[in-house]
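Q: My collaborator sent me two sequences in one message, no labels, and asked for predicted structures for both. Can we handle them in order? The first one she listed is below.
A: Yes, handling them in the order given. First sequence, followed by its structure tokens:
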Amino acid sequence: MALTRTQILEEVKDTIGITGNYQDRTLLRHIEDVSDYMASAGVPAAVIASPKALGAISRGVSDLWNYGSGGGTLSPYFYQRVIQLSHTQAQTGTDENGEPDAPETPGKEYVLSDADKAEIVAMVLQSINASGSPARIGTVTLPAANWIGNESPYSQVVDVEGATANSQIDLTPSVEQLTIFYEKDLTFVTENDNGKVTVYAIGQKPERDYTIQITITEVRT
């Protein structure tokens, strides 16, 4: 079932906890920006307009809304979800109840459980409420030779200038990098232990060097 712009707007507002109509024009602009980005990344138009894309759209809008001062960055979850949705085929036809049939040859798609949906909502709300200051942008280099460990997860300590015990470090790879990670079934996550930042590689051990953009946000304790 294709959703209208108004339906998507109301779903996004409900997800990120915005009431009233005062911010509707701004939110619609963010929805259009996020939808355009998803389309340029290869997500089918029918998928963007379907309920299965609401989580990604809400996350993207939340990312832009959180840093509405002009320093907005899209989160790692948003990028990863867009890659997954880009491998999802649009539904065609209807069943006996008039509902869309699943595609005969489905693309690669991560099916969200109820627990996953609850976690996404929590992440969105945390993104809105937990930030104590605008995010700063930087990069980290992950040399292939620096990974430690004989099996997944592999790890390496990275130098993040200005990182404190309250810094939230998020990796924001490019679309090209995310495509490579997806094809290699490779995921990177970060951990901040009192200012000591460690990056973990989950999956196969990286065999090449990567330089990845990061966002550094000071969060409330």
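Q: And the one she listed second?
A: Here it is, processed independently of the first:
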Amino acid sequence: MIQVAKADGVCERRLIEQLKQRSGEIDRSVTAAVTEILDQVRLYGDTAVREYTMKFDGSVPENAEVPKEALDAALEACDQKFVYALYRAADNIRDFHARQKQQSWLEPGADGVILGQRIRALHRVGIYVPGGTAAYPSSVLMNAIPAKIAGVKEIIMVTPPQKDGNPNPDILAAAKIAGVDRVFLMGGAQAVAALAYGTETVPKVDKIVGPGNIYVATAKKLLYGTVDIDMIAGPSEILIVADETANPKFLAADLMSQAEHDKLASAVLVTDSEPLAQAVAELFPRDAGSGYGELLTNARQAQAAQRALEGVRRAREALELGVTPDALLTDVEEALSALGELTGANIREDITARIFERFCVGK
């Protein structure tokens, strides 16, 4: 069960201090380790990638590149309800991002000067898809589909092998649906380095996108300039402001959607309803399911990752606590009037969990 803390003027301030202590700066030891990995891959290519894969994953796939037939087979072997969900999510993601596509334009002036902007897609993009702590097929869809829409000529995906050395079939199915061109079984900083520098097997890319652990994030940070990147993500965090009208199942799902990412993730619920806080706390382990037992244990190592605050009377008071998360959700009866003027907030009524917005709606 997650911890429920009543706001008494002391407890919530202690929580804030714990959140502040979770520095966004990358640990020096991690930087040193990643720097060495990058240097080794740059110098020794596939040999270094295989050595680090054995060191960190415990096994090396017989073939680094996954054959296209394996993607077709995965699509057939996966639960067809899951495959249907992937197709539906892919359609929604495609529809959303097609509306964002930029167009080239030319505008001749009266004095003969021609103004314009030419939009050209990158030739080759690399996608990192986590597969160690947990597998995220949604990351495949949300990174590959916008690239296809933009006109990227070739999409290269890297993902860690499972403990048995084989690829995760759910990730392969998503790769097939999203139109990924080539898939390599490798993860961690060594996979990022392979994409950035190129090896005998892995082609050099123009840009690397996708989430990962602190080693992946550090590698992307250090390689920026050698290769373009999307952003340095993590640790994940979410703040939900809710009242007694909220659905506890939705809240538990949203909290877990961030807390599962890694042990540094921060998932916080602020509510003026103690019964709601207790209901969410009771649902959390059940919603996690048998496959998330270890994730739940790891998340508990972060003191702020699974706390629900109770006792804040108004939604605005929650914001005055000074917590600025990646995702701010409001699940109060008058959400739009209470927080509608805030930039960056994800405003919604008691409709559905944010995980459906992210994985199905296409945003």
